[in-house]
Write a structure and sequence with these properties.
Blueprint lengths: L48 H9 L3 H12 L3 H14 L7 E7 L5 H14 L4 E7 L12 H4 L1 H4 L4 E7 L11 H10 L4 E5 L16 E6 L6 H4 L10 E4 L7 H15 L12 E4 L8 H18 L1 H27 L2 H15 L5 H17 L2
Parallel strand pairs: 1-4, 1-5, 2-3, 2-4, 5-6, 6-7
Helix pairs in contact: 1-2, 1-3, 2-7, 12-13
Organism: Heyndrickxia camelliae
Protein name: Methylmalonyl Co-A mutase-associated GTPase MeaB
Pfam family, one: MeaB
């Protein structure tokens, strides 16, 4: 086949008219100088605490997310840096209204918060949503899908949405929600909405973090006797019956009247304020303005009678004791002798060779004796 472009098998067949063109010598797609691209994850540089604090206070939403990630981190090396960051942010927080929103699963919390938050953003407010998702008791993971649910609000330049896992914390909130609120206030957000997990009447910890506590309810969630049970009902500053639209509107109005009858027998959650029930349709935006009017009236009244300041001060004390408990728990389980001794105690308790109370006594004797020997 030398000197020709005819296939070898066609040399003796003069009637064969086809020929071929030699191919281009290359590595890929005809490009001789092709070089395979390598995609590498760009690692974040170690930002100093001062720079991070400045960027948060300038309103940088990406840096605010990084700050909250640092605050929520369980890594020991991040704890001190997070405390330094909070120390820098605390003097620069802006006055805000903290609103806690809870309710049973399916009450439409995400839809309500999106419509409520969007209306406030349109009024010129800066709204931060701290949404807590339940963590799996099996895998420990969380879906964290609140930005997907609140797509319209997430796109608004005045809004910031931060989903966080509950990580087993009781009360429907993250153990670092208080610190996250401080970071958001330092970033200039004047309305902070804390959305709880939504597990029922046990979600009371959020009451110690917010100024106004709103319970989102739906029709057919229980009778009057169920509603009068002690717990979350007596902590609410307002109850909003959602999904008051279409054929459900009349039933929602009936549920509102029933809640108002129940609330008549309960002690008010806040001094100088009468808790009432309202209706709204988050899907169509009906009743959202009335809810905001109720909150602004609440803030005005509680500031005038001193209840607002009293609540903020009591919340700081609650925060103090919560951090003491957390520090003691970490100190106990990170103690070298406890870490060595605990597996034997666990094994003994499992085999029922020692009672649980005696096991606890033995562990604390080990823990306390290490300080006495110093």
């Amino acid at each position: 086949m030398e000197g020709t472009n005819r296939p070898e098998w066609s040399e003796n067949n003069q009637s064969f008219s086809s020929s071929y063109m030699p191919g281009v010598h290359s590595m890929h797609d005809g490009l001789q100088s092709y070089k395979k691209k390598k995609f590498q994850k760009v690692m974040d540089t170690d930002i100093s605490t001062e720079v991070l604090a400045d960027k948060v206070m300038s309103g940088d939403r990406i840096m605010l997310s990084k700050a909250i990630t640092l605050i929520e981190s369980n890594a020991r090396q991040h704890y001190q840096k997070a405390q330094e960051l909070l120390h820098l942010l605390l003097p620069n927080i802006c006055p805000s209204i903290r609103i806690g929103i809870t309710g049973v699963p399916g009450a439409g919390k995400s839809t309500f918060i999106e419509e409520f938050g969007f209306s406030l953003c349109e009024k010129g407010y800066k709204v931060a949503v701290l949404a807590v998702d339940p963590s799996s008791t099996v895998s420990g993971g969380s879906i964290l899908g609140d930005k997907t649910r609140m797509e319209r609000l997430a796109r608004h330049p005045n809004a910031f949405i931060r989903p966080s896992p509950s990580t087993g914390t009781l009360g429907g909130v993250h153990r670092k929600t208080r610190e996250s609120i401080i970071a958001c206030e330092a970033a200039g957000y004047d309305i902070i909405i804390v959305e709880t997990v939504g597990v029922g009447q046990s979600e009371v910890i959020v009451r110690g973090m917010v100024d106004f506590f709103l319970l989102l309810a739906i029709t057919g969630a229980g009778d009057e006797l169920q509603g009068m049970k002690k717990g979350i009902m007596e902590l609410a500053d307002a109850i909003v019956v959602n999904k008051a639209d279409g054929e459900n509107k009349k039933l929602a109005e009936k549920t509102k009247r029933e809640y108002n009858q129940i609330l008549h027998f309960l002690m008010p959650a806040t001094r100088g304020w009468e808790t009432k029930a309202y209706t709204c349709s988050a899907l169509y935006g009906d009743g959202i303005q009335e809810v905001w009017n109720t909150i602004t009236l609440f803030i005005e009244k509680t500031k005038n009678n001193g209840a607002f300041t009293e609540r903020r001060q009591s919340q700081i004390i609650e925060w103090l004791f919560a951090m003491i408990r957390e520090r003691l728990e970490n100190s106990f389980f990170q103690h070298n002798e406890i870490k060595q001794y605990l597996p034997f105690i666990q094994d003994a308790v499992a085999k029922e060779t020692i009672t649980v109370s005696n096991a606890v006594d033995a562990l604390f004797q080990k823990y306390e004796s290490s300080f006495e020997n110093r």
